[in-house]
Write a structure and sequence with these properties.
three-stranded antiparallel beta sheet; alpha+beta; about 250 residues; D-amino Acid Aminotransferase, Chain A, domain 1; five-stranded antiparallel beta sheet
Length: about 250
């Protein structure tokens, strides 16, 4: 059995680790299953399983996509919500998290580009950038995943040249900047799934600050993912997202 202090140092995805720490504050116990990467958290006669790389039932850094897309697309369209439509030109991408009692947050999602210095290859540039991100106090600064199939990993990048690092994203909290019409759409989406306590979804629009800007909903996710690091708000009242998720977990029968 691990002690609570030892558990703080375990190797879990950042979002899952945040949930574990919140549970430990409530006097939960945590045990690593010998010979595996699984951790079991016990609290009030309930057990919650966490896995080092992927936790199906608990928040994961990038979120877990809701399966059977054809079904939930039909549900959204029946609720007059635009989904999986042709994307507007020069669109902005958001990740919006909302609970069934309408606490929400919104992150602007942007592609990661790194600049060459004329003497390092792309692998070294990514590793140096990751050192900054890992040591940052900004939890929205997500470490870059290196795609092993890239053909240019060991080529020197010219000074000033910007390289797109596909499959990686930077996040900016825009919760207080999004237009109220987007909040209205978010409420309609969570209302479309009455069995869920919270939901996260991709939202594409021309301008998230303008009212009724053309939009399309992308993937629906059944976990907050990286949004867990941004506070949720409702009528100018705010809560810590991770605490709200834990409250919902503990309220389940």
């Amino acid at each position: 059995m691990k002690t609570n202090q030892e558990i703080i140092d375990i190797d879990l995805p950042a979002a899952s680790k945040k949930i574990v720490l919140e549970l430990l504050k409530k006097d939960a116990t945590c045990q690593k299953i010998i010979g595996t990467d699984f951790y079991k958290v016990n609290l009030n006669n309930k057990s919650y399983n966490f896995y080092r790389d992927f936790t199906p039932a608990i928040s994961y850094m990038w979120g877990i996509v809701l399966s059977r897309k054809y079904l939930w697309l039909e549900m959204l369209k029946n609720a007059s919500i635009k989904a999986a439509e042709k994307l507007p030109k020069n669109y902005q991408k958001l990740r919006i998290f909302i609970t069934n009692n309408y606490y929400y947050n919104a992150l602007l999602v942007e592609n990661v580009t790194l600049e060459g210095n004329g003497h390092d290859n792309l692998t070294t540039i990514i590793k140096n950038e990751n050192l900054k991100r890992i040591n940052s106090n900004d939890h929205l600064s997500v470490p870059i995943k290196i795609q092993s199939h890239r053909s240019n990993l060991y080529r020197i990048v010219k000074k000033g040249k910007k390289v797109l690092i596909g499959g990686n994203y930077d996040y900016t909290n825009v919760t207080f900047a999004i237009n109220r019409s987007i909040v209205g759409i978010a409420k309609k989406i969570i209302d479309t799934f009455p069995g869920l306590e919270y939901i996260c979804f991709e939202f594409f629009t021309n301008d998230y600050k303008k009212s009724n800007s053309p939009y399309s909903v992308g993937n629906i996710l059944i976990s907050p993912g990286v949004n867990i690091f941004a506070q949720v708000v409702k009528n100018k009242h705010s809560k810590v997202a991770s605490k709200l998720v834990v409250e919902n977990m503990l309220s389940r029968r």
